[in-house]
Amino acid sequence: MSKQSIKLISWNVNGLRAVLRKDVFIPFVKAHQPDILCLQETKAKQGQAEVDLPEYEEIWNSAEKAGYAGTAIFTKIKPLSITYDIPGARADRFTDTFGNTLKEGRVITLEFDSFHLVTVYTPNSKRDLARLTFRQKIWDPAFLAYINALEQKKPVVFCGDLNVAHTNIDLARPDDNHKNAGFTDEEREGADNIITSGFIDTFRHFFPTKTEAYTWWSAFRGARERNVGWRIDYFFASPKLKKHLKSASIHAEVLGSDHCPVEMVLEI
């Protein structure tokens, strides 16, 4: 049986309409030709952003709140099934300051012949850590339980902005950030639990000790130009797919968002 290479790319675009206006998104997709493209923080509903990629099927999970959060997947490979959010959990529903429950569109799952693909936009714990307890006690356990349940049926690949730098080499200034959102012990524990469950951080699989490899940079003080960044965007893969991992990479040169795209290639 012949093997097929499947190129997957994940990108937090920080507003799909904004990155389209910068004339970056379509040229990037056409140049790299991913089989499946996962997006986070789309900040739009389908139809609000005109995406001229007719070879892709578009699957959207948008937030109820306008201009906020949201995920989407563009795929050349037709999925067997599509699931939105975390079934049976209220983990992607939050209450705003007025007591309204808002759907934030943070998870999409596609089932293919050989694996499940999940894209996720993990909630940020906020600068004042207002969401840290929710993140640690509700979101992270609910998401991990979900991907572990999927893993019992088929191998899982999941990707997206996990809003955590896992280890000291995943951000430029670890000593300054231990009590800041994205590098607290509580958030890193969530990443530890993913690894303990057996899932493979595909970038670290290929580059276990590589430093200065980041996927997000603050807009302040020329952080991107100085490469003072964080690696918070990931592809994780089931241990059952380890022998099928062909490559993993970070497209740090791609502008248009405060995040850059990340990529992995499977050979199935």
Describe this entry's structure for a reader:
The chain is α+β, with helices and mostly antiparallel strands and 268 residues long. It has a single domain (5-267), classed as Deoxyribonuclease I, Chain A, CATH 3.60.10.10. Helices cover 19% and strands 27% of the residues. It has five helices and 16 strands. It has helices spanning 16-21, 25-32, 132-151, 185-196, 202-206, and strands spanning 5-12, 36-40, 57-61, 71-75, 81-84, 93-95, 101-103, 107-111, 116-121, 156-161, 200-201, 216-217, 229-230, 233-237, 245-250, 262-267. Strands 3-4-2-1-16-15 form a six-stranded mixed β-sheet. A six-stranded mixed β-sheet has the order 5-8-9-10-14-11. Strands 6-7 form a two-stranded antiparallel ribbon. Strand 9, helix 3 (132-151) and strand 10 form a beta-alpha-beta unit. Helix 3 (132-151) packs parallel to helix 4 (185-196). The longest helix is centred in the middle third of the chain and has 20 residues, at 132-151. The protein is globular, with a radius of gyration of 17 Å. The model has no long low-confidence stretch (mean pLDDT 94).
